[in-house]
Amino acid sequence: MLKNVFRSFFLNPRRVADLFCKCRRSSLAREWQEKTLSARLSLLKTSYKEFEWDLFRVLSENKDTFVLSKFTYGLNKSGLKANDERLYSVYKKIEELKLKNKGLREEEIRINFNEMKDFLADNVFLIRQAFVNNMIVPHFSDFCVRVDDLYWACRRNLTGKITSHSKVLYGQKLESWAVSLCTIDGQRHSTGDYGTPVVLHTCCTPVNYALAINEHGANIVNQYISNEPIPRNKDVLYLSPSNVPQNPIDVAGALLVTSLLNVTQNSQQTFDRIVARYNEMSGRTSKKITWNRSFYIHEKGAELGMQAYAHHLKNNLCFPCGTDINETVDLLYKLYSIEMSSESLAILAATLANDGVCPITSERIFTSEAVQSTISIMLSCGISSHFSVKVGIPGVAGISGGVMLVCPGLLGAFLWSPPLNDQEVSVRGLQFSERLSEIFDLHYFSFSKPTAPTTSHQVEGFPGTQKLQNKSSSNVQAIFAASLGDIQALRSLHMMGHNMESPDYDGRTPLHLAASQGRMNVVKFLVEKCNVDISVRDR
Q: Do residues 358 and 351 make contact, with C-beta atoms less than 8 angstroms apart?
């Protein structure tokens, strides 16, 4: 009898997992149940029209309902977080469902097909990508395991020194260490002290440079700043043969960029405007972006070099006409003192990696021209020539221990650990960058990147897929999104520059499909936001 019971349990894995859950061993049981489920979901390669039924069939195991935790787990496993703005309506509906089922956990709430369909209504494309492993890093959980292993290996590195700047900020915390990554699809993973506010210092300089190009254009900005690398020596002022700072990363170049950002407003208004842009770049994940007054006062009181640089630049007629150098210096100190979490800064880096479009809001922040110039500067002038050769990832480092990395077309990362080497670069951040590039073959000039991984074993190589959509595939996505009422997918395509008037093989545009399906919110978006031609006749 007992033998038959055991046999029936192990022939039905779900019953075993449910038994463990009821016994309050939910962490182990749920992990085992979810791994079994994820293996089946990875086989789900259905069309957009069939996706809803097929997803429900897999999650419910051919029953009438399934537990809510299976749905949220599928999103989390792919790297999509609850504070992702694209999924706001989904998690809002989930919270409403929780209130309706007061006192029950996600593992205890069961949902039917219509409730699941309601979750998918506004985000069918994004959710389908998550469940069928069609994100830029398909097997994201496997990738995260490798990243965590690398994190712990680097944590054992106790070399480096704590600078006076870091003592003001963090004391003698040698153990502080954070790693945050965000892909261009908005998949996120963080480990360590990623919630601790980090002072940007020079990590803000490439971002400010991109903002300046956004506002004035590359031709104007390049009249004031060159793009040549220089040694990492803060005590020497380098000017190019044309009498301009060598690049926007060093102090002289940062001063010129700051003056260009502060042409028409006072420094406080400019600072507030820049902080608002930082908030947009990071997907509005920070409740409030602040600046560290202690660091600001320490820097302003201890460093007279920046004032000397500013006067030397003014003497050489480097600043735009009418520049107030005292306001410019004060504004740069404030920009250096901006504090953000590593998690938010990874999203900011991913915005640069995604051609200027924030991956978790689908909003375009930078022009392609600004992104191209900024990433080029980060690769050639960011950290050091040795870093460019050894690691081959565009990056920048600050004396607070931060390292920002941008892998174009793949991901952005922010690493933070206060102990620095002799070149004032985070020791752990440098070690992690070298190993990340080596393990996943992320060097900018590598020719050995394989094609898209199809199994979890291939995550040991390059993690990204060759996800360059051609015109026809974008057209198909736009047509289906319009017919299904998926505003988020249409907004993302519009931000990426897709022509929203492109017809399908039958001559029908997204506007035709939206109108015929009664999707008035989509019609309004296409007409008002995309300015599509309403005179084109349907078939």
A: yes
Do residues 347 and 359 touch, judged by C-beta distance below 8 A? yes
Q: Is 160 left (phi over 0), alpha (psi -120 to 50) or beta?
A: left
Query: What pLDDT sits at residue 20?
Result: 36
**DSSP code of 245?**
B
Q: The domain 42-136 is classified under which CATH number: 1.10.3720.10, 3.10.20.30, 1.10.238.210, 3.40.50.150?
A: 1.10.238.210
Per-residue model confidence as pLDDT tens digits over 468-525: 344 446 666 777 677 767 766 777 676 666 777 777 766 778 888 778 777 888 888 8
Please work out, in degrees rounded to the nearest 5, the angle formed at the alpha carbon of residue 449 by the alpha carbons of 444 and 451: 135
The CATH number of the domain covering residues in 471-528: 1.25.40.20
Collapsing DSSP to helix, strand or coil, 60 comes out as helix
Beta strands, E only, 338-481: 338-341, 395-397, 402-407, 411-416
Which residue carries 């736009």 as its tokens?
Answer: 478
Q: What is the pTM of this model?
A: 0.78
Residue in the block written with tokens 């050769």? 389
Residue 500 one-letter amino acid: M
The pairs formed by 330-333 with CB atoms below 8 angstroms and a separation of 24 or more are 330/267, 330/300, 331/258, 331/261, 331/262, 331/267, 331/270, 331/271, 332/254, 332/255, 332/258, 332/306, 333/296, 333/299, 333/300, 333/306
% of the chain surpassing 70 pLDDT: 80
- Rounded distance, CA 356 to CA 348, Å? 9
Percent over 90 (pLDDT), the chain? 31
Q: Quick one: tokens of 443?
A: 């060097």
Q: Does pLDDT of 7 surpass 50? A: no
For domain 162-172+191-405, give the fold. Beta-lactamase (3.40.710)
Distance CA 160, CA 390 (A): 20
Average pLDDT over residues 38-49: 52
19, 32 in Cβ contact below 8 A? no
**What are the residue ranges spanned by the domains of the chain?**
1-38, 42-136, 162-172+191-405, 471-528
E-only strand ranges, 223-348: 290-291, 338-341
Hey, which of 169-178, 296-305, 504-513, 519-528 has the most confident mean pLDDT?
Answer: 519-528
Of 396, 367, 373, 372, nearest in space to 384 by CA: 396
* pLDDT band of 63, cuts 50, 70, 90: confident
